[in-house]
């Protein structure tokens, strides 16, 4: 119970929508005795793949490990280049370095924060073997256009769909028809398993190899060994990794997947109200749907005009002082210390978005009063 006259509770930037059903599913997994990778992982893989329109799902420990395995499947290594957006969480570029290849940073379009055929072409070289297109903040990239040019260039296109579940391109799920798509279930994402990730593909041979690679390169999984009535002696066919998801996580994921439509509908409703309220605040451009698809509003970010009365960091400070947690916009990976000596072409749009944008609170249980508080601070800082 709140104390009369007390300051209102702090508004978080994100709260996962978890409840009793997820708690029971996790408890049931624990009581079943299957707490590592087992039947619930397999069920989650099937359900997730069906949801996004893929033939195969391979559950893993994170989206980062999914990206790593995707690049191994493509046999990328030293001497190869992979075009990536700098405007992305640093894991996108890091995964390229894990296989010894070189990430080449490309700029993005301002409206979506995503790669386009033109921005990729600007940095493409004869050594370019792949492109990683990120569906940034849940805004779908125009993968149909990117797939077309990548096919012409004989370059593989990987989708970093970490933020993308529930978003669509041309009426179909992000990841539908993808060569390889990597997904995240981190708590900041639309659905969560705590930590965890997924790879989806339509290629059965890749799926078989990726399942091996996530489990130390074994030719028979632990679940298959335990299910067998006869002794099974496994072989290790290649150097692999321990990138498995647990049945506890998968149990939570199955419940979350069942909530996906409701979660996305709620986030889109909240985003629409934000956009309506912000239409009266001069100098702020909110993120929105691109012409080729619909976003899930995993993040709701705004880009102040260059002549906005205060800078991004001052806006964040004003929001924090008012009891509102917001975040800086998406990072520019090429400006991070880890890539200080890496080199990059000029990336003016990336640097502008990263420098000036901010992410506003948006979560399933957010109230109208909380949204009004956020917008009131922005309006005050705009001089309104």
TL;DR of this structure?
37% of the residues lie in helices and 15% in strands.
The SSE order reads HHEHEHEHEHEEEEEHHHHEEEHEHEH
Quickly give the structural class: alpha/beta
Task: Tell me, briefly, the overall form.
Answer: globular
The proportion of residues forming helix, as a percent range, comes to 25-40%
Rounded to an integer, what's the Rg over CA atoms?
22 Å
* End-to-end C-alpha gap: 33 Å
What strand order characterises the main sheet?
1-9-8-5-4-2-3
Q: Strand content of the residues, in percent?
A: 5-15%
- Main beta sheet, described? 7 strands, mixed
Describe the structure.
By secondary structure, the protein is an alpha/beta fold. 37% of the residues lie in helices and 15% in strands. The chain contains 13 helices and 14 strands. The strands form 3 sheets. It has a 7-stranded mixed beta sheet, with helices on both faces. α6 links the parallel β4 and β5. The two termini are 33 Å apart. 47% of the residues are buried. The model has no long low-confidence stretch (mean pLDDT 95).
